[in-house]
Structure formats: C-alpha cells, structure tokens
Design brief:
Layout (H helix, E strand, L loop, with lengths): L5 H8 L8 H10 L5 E4 L4 E6 L3 H4 L8 E4 L2 E7 L2 E6 L14 E4 L5 E6 L3 H6 L16 E6 L2 E7 L3 E6 L1 H15 L1
Antiparallel strand pairs: 1-7, 2-5, 2-6, 3-4, 4-5, 7-10, 8-9, 9-10
Helix pairs in contact: 2-5
Length: 181
C-alpha cells in the first residue's frame, strides 16, 4: 500500500457516500411537486469534541441544542460531547486545543438537508420526535431514529440537516423515495 499525503487523505475523507444518488435525491422534489427537497451536504468537516468545560470553549450547555461557535455549528450530543460541523477543513484543531478530546469524524456520517413546506410532514412519517414548529425550532438538535436508522437531526432556520452513517445513507434515500409517494 502506498503511503498517502495529507491532501490525499483529506480527499478520501471528504468523498461523498451519496454522489451516485444525486438523481434519486432530485426525484424527491419531482415526486412531491416541489414540497420537499433533499440534497446532500458534502464536504462538511465534523469534529467530535469532549470536554469538561464547554463554557470555556463556547459550546452550548443546554441539552439538544446547537449554537454557532467559532464559525461552526456546535451540536450538543451529551453532557460532555459535541459535534462541531463546518465547511472548514477539520485539521484546524488549534481552535479546540483546550478540549479534552478532539477527533475528526468527517467520514463517519453523510449529511442530508431537507427543506420545503412538506419537509416536516415527511420526516414525521419516520421519526418519533415531535417535529411541530412550536416544539422543534431552529437551534434544536437530537440523536434519534429516522425510518429505523440512527441519525442526528439539526433544525436550522428553514432546513433540517440529517447526519447518518454512510452504511445507512442509501437505505435512507430509498426510504425518502418511498415515503414521498
């Protein structure tokens, strides 16, 4: 096996597990007459942070919330665990040097973004969370199941991001296609 340089490793880590499903994702909008759009958010860096002092790092302390911290979205996953997501390269660990643990997990989840007037209704078909706009608002996130797949949901102002393991990503696209009809 040939050793790889840092740029080659970054390219491998950032390869999309759903690039072959782009037409299927576009079909969802056609099936729903534009009420739901699903797209892949490729090339997002994901860093798992563990720390005993989230305030020092500017991380959210309220359960199941996310905030913008250091030009990245910091999602609360547990009492001492956060997922930090950004478009920047994950190698910039220096921003998080005071954390107890900083791990690049960019390759561990595909990211889908769901939007449109029918998005919440479609997601509710496969999720036990109360996704009503009065309960599930911008700034909310949760680890849950969507169509029997373990996911992290992140509610943004007009979209919902879904973080799913690559091994479940194809299954989730198939579920979206079936649930859209």
């Amino acid at each position: 096996m040939t050793p790889r340089g840092p740029s080659e490793m970054a390219d491998l880590r950032r390869r999309s597990p759903l690039e072959h499903r782009a037409l299927d994702l576009a079909r969802i909008a056609a099936i729903t007459a534009g009420a739901v759009q699903v797209s892949e958010m490729s090339l997002l860096s994901q860093i798992n942070i563990r720390t005993a002092d989230p305030v020092l790092l500017g991380l959210p302390t309220s359960p199941n919330t996310w905030e913008n911290a250091r030009n990245a979205d910091a999602l609360w996953l547990g009492p001492n665990e956060w997922l930090v997501v950004s478009a920047a390269v994950a190698e910039s660990y220096a921003d998080w040097e005071r954390a107890g643990s900083v791990v690049d997990v960019s390759a561990s989840r595909a990211v889908l973004e769901v939007s449109g007037q029918g998005a919440r209704d479609l997601l509710a078909k496969g999720c036990a969370l109360d996704l009503h706009p009065s309960k599930w608002t911008s700034g909310a996130c949760a680890q849950t199941m969507l169509a029997k797949a373990p996911v992290i949901l992140q509610q943004r102002s007009k979209t919902t991001r879904i973080f799913v393991r690559p091994s479940f990503a194809d299954y989730l696209v198939e579920w979206f296609l079936a649930a859209s009809t």
